[in-house]
Amino acid sequence: MPLYVIERTYAERVVPFLGAFERVNEINADTGVRWLYSFLSLDHRKSYCLYEAPNAELILSAAAAAGVPADRVVEVVGRMLPSGALEPVV
Fold it and tell me: Is 0.85 topped by the overall pTM?
């Protein structure tokens, strides 16, 4: 399944709490995408999320349904390691 990095910019600070994203996960599951994890910026106004999805359009559809931004969606083909090796996504 292809992997995507999604950049999100929020109007207000994101304050994560246990159970905060249950609805997002339900919408994702219904849409056929899977949220793997996210990095949150120091000011809590941006996140960078790693998703599995058949295509970028489904990620955008799920984001719209969940009411969350999706500023950029970029397909990734591998991870670059500190050694300089490229580890392909399988």
Answer: yes
